[in-house]
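Inverse folding, one chain.
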């Protein structure tokens, strides 16, 4: 993916920090009221145990931050409100998005997360700004290593390039209710992922993409091909398409 060189243990740039949650975005993507979306976001925000566990893991690996999803509470809220059978995400890295998706699935007492990651591992024992990607894993850690053990039961985590693994996952599933692209952020790759999952996304299903500023309009193009438009979260380049 395009590099954003910065030390993983530095304070995140303003544009990368989790920002004020956006219940309106969740409401628009789910067809629920802003009040319901706000309550679901609040539930995630109140879960201090999960945020604390992730932070403790990161600090144990010498980091405060990496290039993780900037709207984890909204991911949680989408799952709580949509009650999906199958959620698919591509791009796990240390596992912040996975942890919030899994937490919501556990709370729903239904559904399954299928995650795909082709990990990068940092080159040196200590993260170096010049040589490492902000999504690199600490030495000795695997994809999703920061996901708390209590959330891992039933998690379908597959390691490999999505070019190979995503078509297999899609062929195995009858439906994909919620999809998140957070892997290689190019027009071609994002378009490949959207086209691969689309036949399994039902009406009312949601396709999300992070870092849309790097996608050359791939999410908008996908939306238009479905006769709709992408909806963007306030403040950051995270977008979603609710399939008509
Ligand atoms: C931005 S990080 C994901 C962050 C994660 N969603 C989170 O919130 O913590 C992107 C991840 O996608 C992985 N990746 C890059 N290209 C990929 C590909 N072709 N297939 C699968 N994973 C890929 C990267 O190595 C990295 O682990």
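Residues assigned per position:
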């Amino acid at each position: 993916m395009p590099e954003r060189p910065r030390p993983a243990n530095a304070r995140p740039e303003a544009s990368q920090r989790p920002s004020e949650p956006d219940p309106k975005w969740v409401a628009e993507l789910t067809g629920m009221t802003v009040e319901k979306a706000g309550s679901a976001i609040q539930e995630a925000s109140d879960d201090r145990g999960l945020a604390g566990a992730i932070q403790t893991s990161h600090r144990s690996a010498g980091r405060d931050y990496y290039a993780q999803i900037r709207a984890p509470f909204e991911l949680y809220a989408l799952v709580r409100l949509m009650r999906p059978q199958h959620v698919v995400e591509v791009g796990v890295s240390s596992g912040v998005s996975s942890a919030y998706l899994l937490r919501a699935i556990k709370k729903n007492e239904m559904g399954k997360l299928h995650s795909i990651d082709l990990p990068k591992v940092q080159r040196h024992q200590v993260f170096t700004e010049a040589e490492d990607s902000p999504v690199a894993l600490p030495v000795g850690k695997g994809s999703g290593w920061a996901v708390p053990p209590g959330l891992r039961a039933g998690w379908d985590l597959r390691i490999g390039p999505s070019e190979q693994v995503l078509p297999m996952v899609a062929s195995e599933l009858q439906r994909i209710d919620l999809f998140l692209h957070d892997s290689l952020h190019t027009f071609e790759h994002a378009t490949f992922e959207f086209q691969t999952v689309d036949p399994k996304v039902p009406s009312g299903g949601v396709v999300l993409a992070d870092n849309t500023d790097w996608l050359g309009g791939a999410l908008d193009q996908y939306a238009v091909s479905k006769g709709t438009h992408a909806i963007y979260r306030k403040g950051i380049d995270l977008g979603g398409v609710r399939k008509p």
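Residues 1-16 have pLDDT under 50 and may be disordered. Residues 1, 67-69, 90-97, 116-120, 135, 161-163, 182-184 surround S-adenosylmethionine (CB under 6 Å).
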